[in-house]
Each structure stands twice: as C-alpha cells, then as structure tokens.
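Changelog excerpt

This revision adds worked examples to the README so contributors can see how folded entries look when concatenated. The first example is reproduced verbatim below.
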Amino acid sequence: MDGSADVRDGKYQTALEFLYGRINYERTARGVPCGSRLNLDRMRQLLACMGNPQDSLKAVHIAGTKGKGSTAVMIASALTGAGYQTGLYTSPHLERLEERISMDGVDCTPTELVELVDALRPAVAQLDRAAEEDAELGNPTFFEITTAMAMLCFARRKVDVAVLEVGLGGRLDSTNICRPVVTVITSISFDHTQQLGNTLAAIAREKAGIVKPDIPLICGVTQGEALSVIEQIAAERHAPIHRAGKDFTFEYTPPPRDSPPRDSLLGCGGLIDYRDSLSPQGTRLDGISVGMLGSHQAVNAAIAVATLSCLQTDGCKISESAIRQGIA
C-alpha cells in the first residue's frame, strides 16, 4: 500500500504524535520505574478491547540480554523463505517507527500505521478513562500500544507465524501475552538492573518469565548461575529445554581477512557447522553462511537454526535451503 497520501494530509504525523505523546520508557534516562505500573493487566485489557488478536497468532517468542533482535530476524527470514507468511516485531527502530512491524521482510506502510493507530484509539481512550478512577492501573504506554498494533496487524494479515522480540526483561514485558509454539532465550548478562535485578540469577528469572507450560525452550545461556535458574523454571513448567553446548552445538569459522566487501557477498560473516539432537534423527548442517559479522552473530545463528529445527519437529516444513538463506 502507498502511504504517501497519509503523509501529505497529515494523518501520518498525527498518528506519530499520538504514539510519542504516550509514556515512552525507551526514551527516558532511567527506564521503567519499579512499582505497580509494570505489569500485564493493562496489556491484557487493551488487547481484550481489540478482540484479543494475539490469540490467533502462532508465535516464536524471543528474550535475552543480547542477540534477540538478530536471532529474530534470522528466524523470520528463514520462515519467509520456507513459504510461510511471517510477521516480525522488534524494537527499538532505527529511523522509522514502521520498522518495528514487518511482514515477510517488508515494513508496514505509513497508511497501515495510521489505520492501526486509529483502530487502537478507542481502546486507549477507554483505558485512559479507567486510569482516572484507578491510579494503580496507569495509562497505556508507547510500547504497549505499539505491541498491540503489531498483534492486530499480524492477525489482520493472517500471518502463519509471528516472531516477537521482547522489549525489556520477559516476565512483565508487553509481548508476554502471546501464545508461543517455541520460546527462546539468547543470552543473560547485566542489563536494566534497576528493573530486572542486580544478579545474573535475578535477571535470568525475569527473562525466563516467557517460558510457558509444555512449550519447548531454546536456551543459548551457558553460565552456571543463570542457566540453573532457567532450567529450574523450565522444569517447574514442564517445558522441554534445548541447551546450547548440550542439545545443539556449532563450530565457527570466521571470514578470511581478504573477504570481499559486505555488499558484494551474501553471508560474509563467516561459517558455522551446526549439530543438534532436537529430533530423533538430529540435524547436521555444515558451512552455513552467517550474514552478519562477529563471533557473537555465529552464536545467534546457531540459536536461530535450533529454533527452526524445533519448529520442524512441530510440523513446519522448512527446507535446508530456506534455513541457509535465512541465516545468510
């Protein structure tokens, strides 16, 4: 859809002003404050006003201190390559808000953004009125509204899979109202300690809040303290856990120093040889080209392949070529 008309007549700018006029913890120095406002009650009510679009979505839910955005993009790219209509929700954006919500690698248009904002306005107004009577409820935030927009967009588009990146933490993140078919935790390190805790164990507990009963978890965490917490939560929820270094492994070969420039070679971030035991026959893929530079991206690529392998055992038909192309 062409969004130029909405830009010209001011509807697009009005929509952005509406969104950026909300509480936006991404743009505050101290981030989300501790207290009652950090919960999922508002998000549930907001989505209920919209008819609970998240209930129709088959989601891949990704948390982690680092790597979750790159991992989400690789997974979504492979799913699109396999022929699945795939929604991708990430944050923050670099230049345009539409970057946060994409379908099959194409960002939503200004026109679609305006339509989504207009669809959410009555629900936001309803919760604003409720907040006037119940201060503990609080007003819908920028991230809550944009998350609801993504859920509504993907439901309207009837995507086959929605790949959702957690914004902050996991347990109380706005995305944690989804119904995942697989959850992913990429890594644990110190971040947002004011909200998540000042130990790796505390942070891991918040990230592992996305783990759902009986839903498989792909875990890229290897540190003892953080891993122990994640394993405990997975066991309590009877969630099968597939761990890096145990259930899936990889070897990384960095690119040669004389590699061509990035824009002249697909997948110039090096190669990984991947192995897993996620299915009875296991998966073995050698020489997977990684599209982004750095050994840390090789880790993300292995986590993405493990997630795709898990989806294969759940019935998704994802060819080797789609996996290779998606990672590259």
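The second example, added in the same revision:
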Amino acid sequence: MKWAEIAIENSTTRYNVLSEALVSNGHESQVEFIESRPQTFSEDLAKAKNEFDFIKIGRGFSEEIVKEFKHYSAIVQNVKAADCLFKIEGKWWLRSSLLHGIQKKISTVGESLDIESSALVVGAGAGARVAIASLIKVGFKKISIANQFAEQATELIKEIKKVYFGVEVDFIQKDHLILLPGVYGIVINTTPFSEHNDVLKELYFFNFLKLPGTVIDLVLDPVETKLVQEGESIGAAVIKGYEIAAEADCVFAHWGWSTELNCSELVSQLKEKLST
C-alpha cells in the first residue's frame, strides 16, 4: 500500500511514525513525501493520483484541494477543507481526518466541557474551518474568531452563517483580546507557533477563559507550546497538537487499512519522535 503526503512543508516525522505503526500491526505501508508549491499543485496532485493508493493533503493545500474536485461529501462541502484523499470504486473522494480527531479529543474532556459558554478560535484558515465545524458538532452555539487579518476572518464568518443556522459567530480584533471577559469555555489555536505571531501573545493572560476551561493547540512543534504551558499552569484541560494529530492518524488508518491502531501508543510514539 503506497501512500504519500503532498504539502508545502512535509510532516515527515509524523507520517513516518504512522507508517511504522501500520507495519508493526501487520499492514503494508510505504509513505513518500511530495513537496509542492501553489503554482505546481494541480500537476503534482495529478501525478500522485496515478502513483499512490491514498494521499494525505498537508500544509498549504487543505483548502486548495477542494477546488480540484466537483464531487465531495456534505461534510467537506460545509467545511471547504480536507486533509486526505481516497480512491473508492474508481473515484477519488476527499475526507477530513482532523475533523474527527478534534471531535474525539474534545469528547474526552468530560463534564468540565461547557458547551453553553462561548468558544474562541484563533486563525481563519483550513484548521480554523475544521475546528469551528468540530465545535458546532459537539454543541457550541457561540463562536468568536481571532485572526491577524480581519478580511480573512470576515469572509469565513459569512461562509459559516450560510451553512450553520442558529450559531452566533463574530470577529475579535487582536487588540481586543486582552479586554475580553471570562466567558469562553474553550480556546482552539490553529495558527503556527512563531515569535512573530502577535495574536498568540495576547492569549497567554487567559483573561477570556471561563475557568477551568479547555485549551487546545494544534501546533505539533514544539510539543509543549507556551499556550499549552500557560493553560496547564491555570488548571485548564489541555489538549496538545500531537494528541490530535495521532487521533486523526488513527482515523486515517481505519479508513485506508480498515485497522484499529492503539491511539495511546501512537500518541506516545509521536511525542517521543517530535521531542527528539
């Protein structure tokens, strides 16, 4: 079973760990990595579809991949983002393993998850689209989006309101984050970890979080971001990027190989590899 990830920047550590886990469970798995660019993505994708059984859509192309297809599931149609591609009965179909990964990890929070509170999503790209869909699926009705670029967030809000009824969505400017009241029961960061990410810097005070609250960071590297560390220091329920990635990869393995990987073991293996 040959599969590949196509991305602007490949997640080699993550998917080598997944491939090794599949082999250890008795499944054929040979992963390759395709580094692409927006101007060559369509051509690179066409070649990959001829060579591989499954394709992971990585960084930079989760929204772009939807434009390459005319037919997709209702979930992908609503989210307008996908991270994997499967060939079923001669036709390629898009799916989002990240959506299922986030939903599964949120479900482990338990009674401390306050779906009556507001949710704060940081970012307005593909990860944010999936995060918002996950939050709505588990029952959140009030969602705020914080993003460095107001136009991108405003466009996303328009799309959300067309698809999801009965959900309140608004935009929070970066400078207003520090002024927010503590009404948010959960925050999900979908933006990269960077010293230049000014939106993240405003989150570390957690003035907006309704304690104990839930903090989710989709960042894989580093495994212990400052957002995670600060969240743990105030007693919030914290879900780390590698935990969601491993959960999503278990879903991907189930779809592709009809196998049930031990997700707890995959989490440990991924954390160890990323840490080194």
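Reviewer comment on example two: Residues 56 and 84 are 4 Å apart (CA to CA). Residues 241-257 form the longest helix (17 residues).
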